[in-house]
Amino acid sequence: MGPNTGLQSCPCAAILEDFMKSFAFTVAAGCLSAGLALAETPVLTVYAPDYFVSEWGPGPRIEELFEARCACDLQFKPGDLLPRILLEGDRTEADVVIGLNTDVTKKARESGLFAEHGVDLSPLTLPINWTDEVFLPFNYGHTAFVYDTTRVDAPPASFDALLEAPDDLRLVIQDPRTSISGLALVLWVQSVYGDEAQAAWEKLAPKIVTVTKGWSESYGLFTDGEADMVLSYTTSPAYHIIAEEDETKKAAIFPEGHYFMVELAARLATSDQPELAGDFMEFILSEDFQSMIATGNWSIPAALDGDKWPEGFQKLDLPEKVLFYSEDEAAELRGEAIEAWRRALSQ
Amino acid sequence: MAPRALAIAAALVLAVLTLGPVCVVLARAGGFGAFGPGDWQALRFTLWQAFLSASFSVVLAVPVAKALARRRFVGRGVLVTLLGAPFILPVIVAIMGLIAVFGQAGLVNRILGALGGPTLDIYGLHGVVLAHVFFNLPLAVRMLFSAWAAIPAEHFRLAASLGLSPPAQWRVIDAPLILRVLPGAFTVIFVICLTSFAVALTLGGGPRATTVELAIYQAMRFDFDLGRAAALAVMQLVLALAAGLVALRVAGQAGFGAGRDRILPRWDGQGRLARGWDAMWIVAAALFLLVPLAAVVLRGLPGILLITPDTLRAAGHSLMVALGSTALCMAWALPLATRRGELLALPAIAISPLVLGTGLFMILRNFVNPFDMALPVTGLVNALMALPFALRILRPEAEAITCDYGRLRATLRMSSFAWLRLVWLPRLRRPMGFAAGLTAALAMGDLGVIALFADPDRATLPLQVYRLMGSYQMEAAAGAALLLLMTSLGLFWLFDRGGRLGAEA
Questions:
Q1: Is B466's CB within 8 Å of A208's CB?
Q2: Beta-sheet pairing, A171-174 with A208-212
Q3: Is B206 on the interface with A (CB under 8 A)?
Q4: Chain A residues touching B459 at Cβ < 8 A
Q5: Strand A171-174 relative to strand A229-233: parallel, antiparallel, unpaired?
């Protein structure tokens, strides 16, 4: 651990407890001349979403696997991704950012803060063709309404059937203005119903129990029995199958297609560890990473053939048809799609 | 004079911390942005729900606080402490508790269903107001209750020997007291509800229940439109200040006269009707506030076994943040316990935590690495956000002390130090205990600005709850939430009890 070696050699910091460590480090770094003893192992700073770093998230395993091959110290900095990087500009500490979604790629690209990943994309096994030279996919899923087979006997067999379902079918969804899955849902409705999107939302409205700020709150309501179906991902049942040996949670598959949701990594142009960052990007598509990510992040690996997926994933119901807007199309449609949702649900 | 210099310093730090971040965000955005399509509707909804929530909270608080103040029964102390719990619950935990009781599949609907009654739908404006009353009724009750408890027993004795009828006693004692406390309580609750976001959205049932804070979140985190976020944040601040000015104008301020600080049994309200009335209010309030808490406990019990060292470490961090915040907040509040100080502090709850966090982040990163500052910044921001509550509790009492004992001080020519040590601090102990308990518990449960300052090794407990939920660990999250509830409540109880020790109120 790089920083600690510095700490111990500075007596002024020895008495400070955990709470003060943060100050202490700043002080210690100041007492020692910069760079002394601190730079023995190179540090790769990775910005990641908050849930990544919990012991249940994929962070710890990524760190372990990558450190085994890089002779470096991988440090996750969890929290906001793009907002923070945009605020920091070219003074950002991040070398790599992992966990971006397609809704921000346009803004991120336009900032000019990101560099090309330089990774060969031929191993990708995504259901769509991916040629982006800056944003590298590491896992994917699709939006889907997840239900409990013990509570819903006959799930709607199509999006149309969902719209026509009796109004006592209770749904919880996420707000497209505050959550990425909520945004994917309005784009999903937009791509299935086009100009009729608002009418579709009006049919859905009486069935929507409530709209939550993020995915966690919705999923909590669903597992508590407050709703019959929850807007989630096609991969959600895999968690229940593998971690809980529970096969009663299923995703309703619609022939109209499901919206594609992919998680991305990118490297910063300003990184002071360009080589390590490059290694990390290569590592993302490696079999080590890809075979871990399915159960690490409960999503489908971006570059791994289906027969190598964990068994629970092979049991998943997956859509034949996948819908996806490019970032330019999505940027153009987004305002209109959210407004259709807002107008229909505000009536 | 030293105390004045202290007050000015405290006020300056306060002003810099509330207005500085907004200015920084504004400067970075290069000016105010235009409001979006739904923003005016959001503003209307925000004001209306805040007005309703604050009105219901304070009106219902009057009979509950009066009943609690004049009845003595077994478990009263515990009940008073527990009634404070909803206010300090982290939002997500409280929502889950409320839905377990009032939701579609909740307790109330199961009882109604068994009786063949109609199904209750919690989602809508009434759900938002219900949740806000759940959070804030306890605060209003406690403020009124403390004021009632501070009335010298001699007043009731005199009222009894004069043979005042209940209406006359109401006019002479109760009504002035309510007028003194209620406008301030209304304002604080109104301002808290102005910044409501997740509660309003979840229980409001959809975009109809969009608040200004949600629009700020969208502008800040989703659209990166700092100008619009800053414009909305300033609007929120102006509303809070306006509410504060109105309240200060309405509220009376005189003290209640000094007494000998004895606890005497009350003579009034011993009729059967009055006792039944009080009992009804106490039972109703206890059911309304405690059943959802019980639901949180029940949901969390199986998850207790899933508490890991990570979660315990997070609890430790939260505890340190809470204690730090409390010390800071008390040191800050005492010099500011005046009318002007309170008005100055009110924006601290109205300022959007997102804008505050972003502004602080932009300022701090010029000097230090923001990641290293996660806990200190959380502590500071929590102290800042709790300051208006602390002042609301301390200010009326502090002024009453000056009003009641100022002549004594002048007669005895007490030095400032002697006055503080012998009169001011001892007499302020009870409200200080309450304010400190509230601050500590709020700091335990607050997520605040951590999103920009997150530190992987120093998560706080509420953050840990969210992390667990984000990884499908719903049961472990419920366990962690229970731990959070217990620690918040424990801290609150310790401080509050410490303040009331020997005061038998």
A1: no
A2: parallel
A3: yes
A4: 54
A5: parallel
Q: Residue B164 has which token pair? A: 């005042």
Annotate B355-413 with DSSP letters as a single string: HHHHHHHHHHTTTS-GGGGHHHHHHHHHHHHHHHHHHHHHHHHHHHHHHHHHHHHHHHT
How many CB atoms neighbour CB A223 within 10 A? 18
Asked if B248 contacts B397 with a C-beta cutoff of 8 angstroms, the reply is no
Chain A, 304 to 323: residues with Cβ < 8 Å from chain B are none
Q: Is B195 within 8 Å of chain A by CB?
A: no
CA distance B425 to B436: 14
- CB contact (8 A) between residue B369 and residue A56: no
d(CA B229, CA B212): 10
User: Among candidates A259, A185, A243, which has minimal Cα distance to A215?
Assistant: A185
Tokens of A27: 């002080």
Query: Is A50–B320 a contact, with Cβ atoms under 8 angstroms apart?
Result: no
Among candidates B466, B198, B431, B206, which has minimal Cα distance to B314?
B466
Q: Compute the 3-state secondary structure of chain A and give helix, strand, coil in percent, each to the nearest 5.
A: 45, 20, 35
Half-sphere exposure of A270 (CA within 13 A, CB side): 14
C-alpha distance from A282 to closest chain B C-alpha (Å): 24
What is the pLDDT tens value at each position of chain A, 347 positions in all? 333 333 333 333 333 344 444 444 444 444 444 444 455 789 999 999 888 888 888 999 999 999 999 889 999 988 888 888 998 888 898 999 999 999 889 999 999 999 999 999 999 999 999 999 999 999 999 999 999 999 999 999 999 999 999 998 999 999 999 899 999 999 999 999 999 999 999 999 999 999 998 898 899 899 988 999 999 999 999 999 999 999 999 999 999 999 999 999 999 999 999 999 999 999 999 999 999 999 999 999 999 999 999 999 999 999 999 999 999 999 999 999 999 999 999 87
Distance from C-alpha of A207 to C-alpha of A162, rounded to nearest angstrom: 9
Rounded to two decimals, the ipTM of the complex is 0.82
- For residue A89, what is the nearest residue in chain B, using CA coordinates? B362
Tokens standing for residue A324: 């996806």
Model pTM score: 0.84
Verify whether the Cβ–Cβ distance B324 to A56 is below 8 Å. no
> Distance between CA atoms of B457 and A245, rounded to whole angstroms?
31
CA B163 from chain center: how many Å? 39
Of residues B286, B299, B296, B287, the one with CA closest to residue B97? B296
pLDDT at B408 over 90: no
Contact A187, A334 (CB under 8 A): yes
Task: Dump the DSSP string for B431-494.
Answer: HHHHHHHHHHHHHHH--TTHHHH--TT---HHHHHHHHHHTT-HHHHHHHHHHHHHHHHHHHHH
Cα of B82 to nearest chain A Cα, Å: 25
Q: What is the average pLDDT score of chain B?
A: 83
Q: According to the model, what pLDDT value does residue B262 have?
A: 57
CA distance B68 to B362: 48
pLDDT in the model for residue A313: 95
Write the pLDDT tens digit of every residue in A86-112: 988 888 989 999 999 998 899 999 999
Separation CA A269–CA A115 (nearest Å): 5
Looking at chain B, which residue has its C-alpha nearest residue A237? B472
Q: Which residues of A touch B203 (CB under 8 A)?
A: 210
**CB-CB under 8 Å, A220 with B468:** no
